[in-house]
Amino acid sequence: MQEEKPSITDADRRSIDAFIERVWSEDGLADRTLDAYRQDLEALARWLAMQGLDLRRAQRHHLSAYHGRQAVAVRSLARRQSAFRRYYAFLARTEPGFDDPTLLIERPKTPRSLPKALAEREIEGLLDAPDLGSTLGLRDRAMLELMYASGLRVSELVELPLASLNLRQGVVRVTGKGGKDRLVPIGEVAAEHIEAYLHGARPALARGRQPVALFLSNRGAGMTRQMFWTLVKRYALVAGITPKRISPHVLRHSFATHLLNHGADLRALQMLLGHSALSTTQIYTLVAKEGLKRLHAQHHPRG
Helix or strand or coil: residue 161? Predict the structure, then answer.
C-alpha cells in the first residue's frame, strides 16, 4: 500500500496559486517552468507539514535541511532554489514585516543564460499588428510602442498614472522596484501613438469618468498584467511569431538588446531599465556579443 503524502494546508495552496499567477503575468514564464515551480513549492510544503510547519513559518535552517536531504543535479537544485527565492520574495513584497528566509542561502553556480530577444523585424511586425481603426487597437498599439520604446517592466506599464506622462518633453516618470522614480524618454513614434490613443480612444474607454490610470480596459478601469500578457500573445499570432517565444518581459529584453546593438552606453541602459546594479545590466552585453558572433559566422568568408 502506497504511503499517503502529507496534505498541503489551504493557506499554502492559495499562497502558491497567487505566486504562480504573479510570475505568469509579470515574467511570462513557460508553462513547463510554472509547473516545475508549483511542484517544487508543493513538495516543500508537504515536507514542512511533516515538521509541523507551513511555508510562511519556514526559516533558513529548514530550507537548508530540505536542500541537503537528497542529492540532485545542479540545474534541478538551481531551479528549486529559484522557485523558493521568487516565492519568498513575493511574500516579502505582499506581506509587510515578512522576513525572507532565502536571503542568506548560497546559490549553486550554473552557466548564465542569455535573455531572449526578438529580431527587429519581428518587433516591427508585432507593433503593426493592432487594428488602428478600433478603440482597443489604438490603446494596444500605444502600449506596445511604449513598452518597446522605454523598456518598462509590465507592472510599471500597467500601473502608469496619466499624470506620469509628459508628451511635450517626451518622457514618462516611472516608479520602479523599491519605490525608486526614474524619467524615461519615450521617443517620437511612441509619443505619436500615445497621443492618438489619448484623443481617439481613452475618452471612450473612460466613459465620462476621470480614471487615474493611463491605459484603460474596455470597462474603464486600469489594465492588468494578465490583460496585457494576453494581448501580447494574441498580436504575436497575428505577426507570425510563435507565442511561446514572447512575453511582456521579452519586449523589455528586446529593447535593451537592440539599444546595445545600436551603440548605447551600458550605464545609460542601466538607468533606463531601472537596474540598481550595473552587473544586472551587463548580461545584455553577452547577448550583443553572441549576435556579432552569428553575424561573423554567417557572412565572413572564414567564419
Answer: strand
